[in-house]
């Protein structure tokens, strides 16, 4: 029995970081005697160029057939004309929606070896271990949009059910962690946030009395993330707040290039991608940081394939590679880092050491 992974390299550095991550995945699969099949599809700008649309039907169908989806990044200056009819980003949004992936998990755990890469003082960072759960298929991202000569609008709408399902996911995850959920909203201004707060309070009271819940306003959370990040465990929030707060939170880890993500729905199938973008300024140079994508693969193995040992293996290997100062430019002092391929090789070399225990078991 093989497992199938749909690979969507996308634009910019997407193809480089996914290629690096697949090398690591192949190695782990080989080591553990698994058969992994990779099928590649177009998404984003390259799909617009080749097929005239950012999410071709064949891509969506391929993803629906696969056990999991690995995505690089979408977008770039070539396709960012504000008047363009289609944009690469629409492909990603349609894919998330099309696969019903309403919960986006973005763990933030600053690595001890990379603390100096963060603009935040190291003493605030030790012990930080946050899991942001971002609602991914609702809110202002998907509401009706209007535009005329002198005005524009974006509708932000949430249903009770959309809030319930993502909030439940966040409480379940908190139970496996430190049992604390901070729910982020703007209930002092927005009606959607007042609904969000009511629903979250009810779910907490009725279904998760063992989990501590705190409501935090988004502006205040933007500050707390920098002033006392260690105090948070699970943070659950709506789509756009989650987008913004996770870019901010990535600075705790030192680089956007270190943060993985998993987008999950009701079943096991998920979409795994680094939280960074296509980084057109460094695309094609072979210097992008592949760790976020490699760590996304660990999440893929854990959530979609149920391979916990293999996932942990990858995480330990990345950990060890960082401890050994296998830094790409974004992490290296003075920006003199190693290449994307060298970073993947560093992880593979560490796999040899750190998968030892799992090998014995097999
Ligand atoms: C992200 C990205 C996307 C988003 C873009 C590319 C549509 O910024 O995954 O965080 O806003 O969700
Ligand atoms: Mn984003």
Describe this structure in words.
With 362 residues, the chain is α/β, with parallel strands linked by helices. The protein folds into 2 domains: 1-101 and 259-362, Isopropylmalate Dehydrogenase; 119-253, Isopropylmalate Dehydrogenase. Helix content is 44%, strand content 17%. The protein has 13 helices and 12 strands. The chain has helices at 14-31, 45-51, 57-65, 88-98, 122-125, 160-175, 191-207, 218-227, 239-253, 291-305, 308-323, 340-354, 356-361; strands at residues 2-10, 35-40, 68-73, 103-108, 130-135, 145-148, 151-154, 180-185, 212-217, 234-237, 262-264, 270-272. The protein has a 10-stranded mixed β-sheet with strand order 2-1-3-12-11-4-5-10-8-9, sandwiched between helices. A two-stranded antiparallel ribbon has the order 6-7. β11 (262-264) and β12 form a beta hairpin. α1 (14-31) packs parallel to α12, α6 crosses α7 (191-207) and α11 crosses α12 (340-354). The longest helix has 18 residues, at 14-31. It is globular and about 50 Å long. The structure holds 3-isopropylmalic acid and manganese (II) ion. 3-isopropylmalic acid (IPM) is lined by residues 74-75, 89, 92-93, 243, 275. Residues 243, 247 line the site of manganese (II) ion.
Distance between the termini: 17 Å
What ranges have pLDDT less than 50 throughout 5 or more consecutive residues? none
Put simply, the count of helices is: 13
The largest sheet is: 10 strands, mixed
Structural class, please?
A: alpha/beta
- Helix/strand order: EHEHHEHEHEEEHEHEHEHEEHHHH
Mean of pLDDT: 96
Oligomeric state of the chains in view: single chain
User: Which architecture of the largest domain per CATH?
Assistant: 3-Layer(aba) Sandwich
Helix content: 40-55%
The strand count comes to 12
Number of domains: 2
Instruction: Determine and state the CATH class of the largest domain.
Output: Alpha Beta
Compute the CA-based radius of gyration: 20 Å
Shape: globular
Q: Kindly estimate the percentage of residues that lie in beta strands according to DSSP.
A: 15-25%
Q: Superfamily at the CATH H level of the largest domain?
A: Isopropylmalate Dehydrogenase
Organism: Pseudoxanthomonas indica
EC number: 1.1.1.85
Keywords: Amino-acid biosynthesis, Branched-chain amino acid biosynthesis, Cytoplasm, Leucine biosynthesis, Magnesium, Manganese, Metal-binding, NAD, Oxidoreductase
Subunit structure: Homodimer.
